[in-house]
């Protein structure tokens, strides 16, 4: 089951993102088989990262919740909000 995990950084928290990025990427490497796609949200001028968007494949909502709760970014207090929603891929058509 695919889930969209949409995270918005707290204002003026770029230092938390920079400091925690290596730990966040290491955490994600343990979930590579679950990653459909992932990357940072950017400001309109593309000069700053302002959040994260992950499309993750988990068997249950509770697994998605646990994944998001244990993300080092979340544990470090980077996010002002985190939304987890079931997601349906329409295009490109899944194989």
What topology does this entry show?
Elements: E1 2-9, H1 14-29, E2 35-42, E3 49-57, H2 61-70, H3 72-75, E4 79-86
Summed up, what is this model?
With 95 residues, the chain is α+β, with helices and mostly antiparallel strands. It is built from three helices and four strands; from the N terminus they run βαββααβ.
What's the CATH architecture? 2-Layer Sandwich
- Write the element-wise H/E pattern from the N-terminal end onward: EHEEHHE
How is the biggest beta sheet arranged? Answer: 4 strands, antiparallel
The coarse overall form would be globular
Rg:
13 Å
Whole-number mean pLDDT: 97
The count of helical stretches stands at: 3
Which structural category fits the helices and strands?
A: alpha+beta
Any idea how many domains? 1
Which homologous superfamily in CATH is the superfamily? Answer: Dimeric alpha+beta barrel
Task: Please write the CATH class name.
Answer: Alpha Beta
**Spans with pLDDT under 50 lasting ≥5 residues?**
none
**SS strand fraction:** 25-35%
